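Quick review question:
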């Protein structure tokens, strides 16, 4: 079983193509892994009988000559993203009995390519937390240390991938929700260029809020080398989401003999944990050893990112989220309930909101101008590795300060593609690095991430939850 669940997607496809294994065998192996890793509480819905029926159908289709890009490959889906006829609860009692009537666009495209949804994964209520804990589904645990957070809001996805519970999956990233879980759990995750992946079939939706194009669906998995295949399938114009634009493939600069890798000056990294800084140094040295030119880039003011993000998230003072979750009748975690109340004071006048949009434009433009000078920038994801539940990254302080995620927020506001891969260990915990590229250079970012991950793979140990299985 472990042999199959250890493999990247393209290897699994090759084995099925050569008839060395089948979709049924692959799905059976991953279903067994999901069952054996229940201690991390990453999965909120699975229907093994349906999955295996689809796997047998995929095997018949392959024997008949069907060679779809993902034929027979299972994938996980964050619970905020719709899968037809499955629960679609987004961690909220307000949606306790909601069943999706159709697939989200991204799920539909993967299914059309032959992929098989294998499970729904945990998310905090309304996806609004940097950890994964809801009253409805309980707390998801980090596979490297069950007393620690897997991050959020795509924490169920990252935790499951860390124990090889699915070959890949779909998460979403508003301000940090793909990248922080990947960083905490030692997995890979891509936040695509803003606006190239449809949001249709997600709850909550964000295009009609102050967030505009900031939130996006993106691929997650164990290996960065799998994510380009998935992005290619899910990106593109969608009539269900009229704000989406085409992803223009750009590969030319990484074909050059020597690429430029941007590094932040040490003065911009003082608030980060020592091992976080070391992970950035390891990544920079790895690229330099491969022939890249290291270029020190001017730092953007990440301290501005959090306030700007929260000003855009709920300019209505949280009125919409309170309406959307009203039928939960107060059944919220303490964190989420406190957020609902604290947002009341964030209500903006129209003048304040327009000023926030102006600041977003200026902030986004500033980061993009900096990154335009290089091919890929190396940026911390969070100030430190996975904290204890309800604590600050990088320490076990009782204080909880969202400023620990300021760099992740900054890159989200920029709308630039960013991929996180594990690069080093802080004791028994993985530490990731963000690779940030230029707009529509997502495939370049993924190629660089793949090169980095393959070079440093020996630095990353298996999580304790894997060893206990």
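Suggested answer, residue by residue:
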């Amino acid at each position: 079983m472990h042999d199959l669940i250890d493999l990247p997607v393209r290897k699994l496809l090759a084995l099925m193509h050569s008839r060395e294994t089948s979709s049924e065998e692959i799905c059976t192996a991953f279903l067994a892994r999901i069952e054996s890793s229940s201690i991390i509480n990453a999965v909120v819905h699975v229907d093994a009988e349906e999955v295996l029926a689809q796997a047998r159908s995929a095997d018949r289709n392959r024997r008949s000559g069907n060679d779809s890009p993902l034929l027979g490959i299972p994938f996980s889906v964050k619970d905020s993203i719709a899968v037809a006829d499955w629960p679609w609860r987004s961690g909220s009692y307000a949606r306790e009995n909601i069943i999706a009537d159709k697939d989200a666009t991204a799920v539909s495209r993967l299914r059309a390519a032959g992929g098989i949804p294998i499970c729904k994964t945990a998310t905090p209520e309304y996806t609004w937390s940097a950890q994964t804990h809801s009253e409805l589904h309980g707390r998801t645990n980090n596979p490297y240390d069950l007393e620690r957070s897997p991050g959020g809001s795509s924490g169920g996805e990252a935790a499951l991938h860390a124990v090889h519970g699915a070959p890949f999956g779909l998460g979403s990233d508003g301000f940090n929700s793909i990248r922080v879980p990947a960083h905490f759990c030692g997995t890979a995750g891509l936040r695509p260029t803003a606006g190239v992946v449809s949001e249709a079939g997600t709850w909550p939706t964000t295009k009609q809020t102050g967030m505009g194009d900031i939130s996006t669906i993106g691929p997650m998995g164990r290996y960065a080398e799998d994510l380009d295949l998935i992005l290619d399938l899910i990106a593109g114009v969608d009539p269900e989401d009229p704000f989406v634009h085409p992803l223009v493939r750009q590969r030319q600069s990484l074909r050059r003999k020597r690429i430029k890798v941007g590094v932040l000056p040490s003065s911009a990294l003082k608030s980060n944990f020592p091992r976080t800084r070391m992970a950035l140094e390891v990544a920079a040295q790895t690229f330099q050893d491969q022939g890249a030119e290291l270029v020190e880039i001017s730092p953007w003011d990440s301290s501005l990112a959090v306030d700007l993000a929260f000003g855009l998230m709920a300019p209505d003072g949280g009125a919409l989220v309170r309406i959307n979750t009203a039928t939960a009748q107060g059944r919220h975690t303490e964190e989420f309930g406190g957020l609902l109340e604290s947002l009341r004071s964030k209500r903006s006048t129209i003048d304040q909101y327009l000023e926030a949009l102006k600041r977003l434009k200026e902030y986004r433009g500033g980061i993009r101008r900096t990154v335009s000078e290089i091919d890929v920038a190396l940026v911390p994801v969070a100030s430190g590795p996975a904290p204890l539940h309800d604590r600050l990254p990088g320490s076990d302080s009782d204080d909880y300060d969202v400023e620990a995620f300021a760099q992740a927020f900054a890159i989200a506001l920029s709308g630039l593609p960013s991929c996180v891969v594990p690069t080093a260990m802080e004791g028994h915990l993985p530490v990731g690095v963000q690779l940030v590229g230029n707009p529509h250079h997502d495939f370049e970012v993924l190629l660089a991430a793949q090169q980095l991950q393959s070079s440093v793979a020996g630095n990353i140990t298996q999580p304790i939850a894997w060893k206990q299985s």
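Why it works: DSSP finds 16 helices and 13 strands in the chain. The domain at 2-467 is CATH 3.90.1300.10 (Amidase signature (AS) enzymes).
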